[in-house]
């Protein structure tokens, strides 16, 4: 297994969060300045300041499981591609998913140019938010399907020998020998949920879900193709490219829910970008800390909790095509699962330490 850039475990937690703290200070200052510029009042500046802070917390709560999955994938990548993901990847995550992606949705949905979409975001935020909300159905179907495949692929793995929920995970691992079992499960769920929709919404849901499934399979195929030729230096770098692309699509799927949900707090694209961007920096810092400290190896069930959270998030995204589910429930639910997994890991470690011969 490849090691991370630094194998030191003595690095204090504050050191990992240094850049996140800096971005927080700058981002909140920009948020307050934006509030002052748009309202001309201190209360307006404080309101935008507070919204940015809440959005950052929302992003962190929704994306902590993302950090765990990123860390799991990063530990198998070469140091060069680890560095590229944590530099280029964070730029793509902050500017691509939090700014370009919402603009792209409006460009496609409203049939306008990128400049017109940007002007709409700045001058007509209510209309911009309406278009984003109307695009929620295909986004939820696409992202939910991709995330569901990510979670099921983790559990339907015949080489997986560490189980948190033993009775369930051991059976899923044994069924992994059945080719395409996770794909069949996802397609069954897609058909079941589509039956609850009517008219054009049903077609949009099914097509978007299929595109999500196809995207996952294509990323897997690309990663497998590049990993087959790792015997040369150039090919090894390409293998890192496959993992890099996988992580970027994964981050995009995680971001869908947060970006759409953020419009419940603010209709200003720039306020949303600041708040979610701050949260994304904390996710990056947590990812680095998890890899460098070997936290996933030390707390054996932490990864399980993250993938259960992903599975539940994917189902929630499907349910959101039918009813509105507050983002706070999604975030707290995922955080609670990870917390229980952490507690189970600590208890298991203590039991092993107590049973060890002295």
Automatic annotation (TrEMBL):
Pfam families for this protein: DUF475
Keyword Transmembrane listed: yes
Entry's transmembrane regions: 45-64, 85-101, 135-156, 176-197, 204-226, 259-284, 305-323, 329-346
The protein's name: DUF475 domain-containing protein
UniProt xrefs under InterPro entries: DUF475
The entry's keywords: Membrane, Transmembrane, Transmembrane helix
Keyword Acetylation: no
Origin: domain of life: Bacteria
Species name: Gemmobacter caeni
